Structure formats: structure tokens, C-alpha cells
Amino acid sequence: MARRRQIFEGKAKVIFEGPEPGTIVQHFKDDASAFNAKKIGTITGKGVINNRISEHLMTKLGDIGIPTHFMRRLNMREQLVREVEIIPIEVVVRNIVAGSLAKRFGMPEGTPLPRSIIETYYKSSELDDPMINEEHITAFGWATPPELDEMMSLTLRINDFMSGLFLGVGIRLVDFKLEFGRLWEDDQMRIVLADEISPDNCRFWDTKTDEKMDKDRFRDDMGGVEEAYQEVARRLGILPESGPTDMKGPELMQ
């Protein structure tokens, strides 16, 4: 098997050169980090679960017309995606008070918000991903006003769809992070959803018990991290009861 050229290794994924021009391979790791890599660990089977969950959600979003970089899953830990120019902005959608929003304003977690709040952060681990506003984004040239408008429009559509999708399986979508990229096709450019959507970058709470089903269990040393990730996948219908080690082949399980 030909050795692939590694392009980049992040906290949760390794990026390899793809088999065709304009493609890359995302390899999902079991490594886990929190608080901008101040806490490091391993969540057994996380890479397999996140690969499947992200594949499922990106496919569902593509079905309703949300442009994404996702092409297809290659194996249990890897997926083929279109190569994009990542915009260095993290878009965070908050539907319920939790995490840093609760700390900043001294509000109890679980407080309902009158409407969803969208925040933007500069994607820089060295700077601890500082919060930014539209003026920073346009002044520093990270995105143009039309690009930012498109990102916000897509974000609202994604939030509406995913909130309903997860509510249907007994999960409250508390908040989540999105990343976008510029996809160049000939001389045309469009903004597409990139990176991943998984329990690594979403807060999921059980609708009946408010039990946390995401990386907060790792952040806060709550235990049951692997089981929480698996439960999200089971509720989405993409993981058999026997767990991730029994998942075979690249076919999509319904």
C-alpha cells in the first residue's frame, strides 16, 4: 500500500493527501483534549464513532441543500472530503445556557435562551480561540461581508434542521461549533460546511434527564464518556447494540 503524505495533525484528526486532486482524507483519532489542549486523554473508539456520526449528519445536511466538503466514508476511521480553504473562524450556536456562556454571565446551566445566540471565535489554539465580532472578521480580512452573511445563513439553517433531528431521538442540541471553508471549482468559489459534527464539538443532553452525552463528560471527569458517544450513535440509528468494534465495511447503516 502506497504511503500517504500527511498534511496536518490536529487534536482530533490527521489530514492526509487524498487519492485524487482536490481531495483530502480525514482520519479520526481516539485522542481527546479539552480547555485548548490543557487536558489530554483518550476516549476509546471515539474516532470510529465520530467518523460515523459526522458522516451521517453531513449526508443529512447535504440532502436538504447545505453544501459540505464531505464526499464519502472510506473505512471505520476515515472519510474522503473535498479540499477547501478553511476560514479561520469558529461559529458557535447556543440554544441553551451552558459551558463558557454560563461562566461569563453567571447564569445556571440549562437556562433557556429566548432565541439562539451565534458567537464567533478566531481559530487559534495559541491565543485560546478569542471571541471576535464582525468588525474583527472583516477588518482583518478573515472573511468578506458576503462570505460572513452566507456563513450565518447556513448556520441558522443547520441549527434549525439539527435541533429537530436530535429532538426526534430524545436529545437536546444545547450548543455546537461549526467551521466553514472556501471551495474553489474552476474560477467559482462557494462557502461550504467543513471539519466535522460530532459529540466532540456539540453539547448533547438527554431531553428527559438532562444527562450529558458529549465531551463534557471528559472535560469534567464524569466517566461514561465512551458510552455517551455510543448512545448518541445508537439513537441516530448508525451503531448496532453490540458497539463500534462490530461495525464492518463502509456501508451506511440505517
Describe this protein's structure:
It is a single chain. The protein has 2 domains: 6-83 and 228-240, 2-Layer Sandwich (Phosphorylase Kinase, domain 1); 85-206, ATP-grasp fold, B domain (D-amino Acid Aminotransferase, Chain A, domain 1, 2-Layer Sandwich), CATH 3.30.470.20. The chain has 6 helices and 13 strands. A hairpin with a 5-residue loop joins strand 2 and strand 3 (23-28). By secondary structure, it is α+β, with helices and mostly antiparallel strands. It is 27% helix and 33% strand. Helix 1 (46-63) runs parallel beside helix 6. The strands form 3 sheets. Strands 8, 9, 10, 11, 12 and 13 form a 6-stranded antiparallel β-sheet that branches.
List keywords for this structure.
254 residues, alpha+beta, Phosphorylase Kinase, domain 1, D-amino Acid Aminotransferase, Chain A, domain 1, 2 domains, six-stranded antiparallel beta sheet, five-stranded antiparallel beta sheet, 6 helices
Number of strands: 13
> In terms of structural class, how would the helical and strand content be classed?
alpha+beta
Q: For the record, what CATH class of the largest domain applies?
A: Alpha Beta
CATH superfamily of the largest domain: ATP-grasp fold, B domain
Mean pLDDT: 92
Rounded to an integer in angstroms, the radius of gyration calculated over CA atoms is 18 Å
Terminal CA distance reads: 31 Å
**How many structural domains are formed by the residues?**
2
Q: Tell me about the largest β-sheet.
A: 6 strands, antiparallel
Our estimate of the beta-strand percent is 25-35%
Q: Please tell me what the overall shape is.
A: globular
| Share of helix, binned | 25-40%
